Amino acid sequence: MTNTHQASPVSDLGSQNPIPAIRACISCARAKAKCVPGSLPTSSCERCSRLRRPCEPAPPRARTQPRKRKALDVE
Fold first, then answer.
1. pLDDT by residue for the chain (75 residues), tens digit each?
2. Quick one: three-class SS letters along the chain?
3. Residue 57: which of 39, 75, 35 has the closest Cα?
4. Number of other CB atoms surrounding residue 67 within 10 Å
């Protein structure tokens, strides 16, 4: 019996330009709600405009250095 099923080419999603992650505003982050940005870059998000709250962007996270592994002495 022959296998007639052809393997479909796998698309390489890693080679595409990734969309940068947008951090939630402070109000949405505190409420653990999805922050959907407005149509203009300077406008408030949908949730803040609906609730008439100030939309304050979250401060950038500080990048942490990876921990250095200690070399084990092998006897």
1. 555 555 545 555 555 666 666 789 999 999 999 999 888 877 899 999 999 999 998 888 888 888 887 766 555
2. CCCCCCCCCCCCHHHCCCCCCCCCCHHHHHHCCCCCCCCCCCCCCHHHHHHCCCCCCCCCCCCCCCCCCCCCCCC
3. 35
4. 6
CATH of domain 20-58: 4.10.240
Backbone φ, ψ for residue 28 (5° rounding)? -70, -35
CA distance 58 to 64: 18
